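Database export, one record per block. Field names are fixed; values are copied verbatim from the stored entry.
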Amino acid sequence: MSDAVMGATLDGTEPAMARGHSGDAARPQVIEPTDLYLASTYYGPMGGAFASAADLARLMHAFMGEQVVSRSSLDDMATPRGPAWGAAIGYGQGLFTIYEGTVFHGGSVAGFLCEMDVHREARVGVAVLSAADWAFPSETLNAALAELWPAGPPPPDDEGPSDAEVVGSYRDDVVLGDATVSGSGGALTLALQGESYPLTRWAPGSFSFYYPPWQMDVEASFQRGPSGALYLVTLLGVARRTG
């Protein structure tokens, strides 16, 4: 990775170093590389690594062969240790894994957002880096994947809980409180904290909904615990099925 910089101690004179943009898109705050948030060796970016889109392209290429890491190690990294977001997505060794073989991970610090998706067998990879933190460019990533991989992934073996199974009442005593999932005309709606949110299906057992307080889409999935109990899992909190 010829462009990568290790070590978060920067003086702002590094060539081609991007400036981040944070807050209001109409009046963004410029985040310099020397900002205390980014210069922290323990948080942003993780481990003090600054890299370019070209660097991530080289990293994705490494996932598709054995020049850097052995196939057995790559297989181990991509093997899920448990569910992350519903039946469709698990978490391996530092990588999220989708049922059809795609591995991915994203990241965010003040002023920046990014994600990298790689399908090793199809030899397709897309990385999107944004020097703004108010909207993740998911449409760009999805459009690039569709162009590079027209056939797309195969359908999942595990369809996840059916709509009829997930409709009902949920309870989280810590954050969410009471939540209700209702269904009508093939669509699901989540009622939470006095508001109703239509759920957009994007994978088996996995959905998203727009959450105005955060001004972003929030993932929501339905997962079964070891006892068979059904849970609603979101970034806001986790609620157990009660009725």
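Remark 1: The longest helix spans residues 53-63.
Remark 2: The chain has a mean pLDDT of 81.
End of record.
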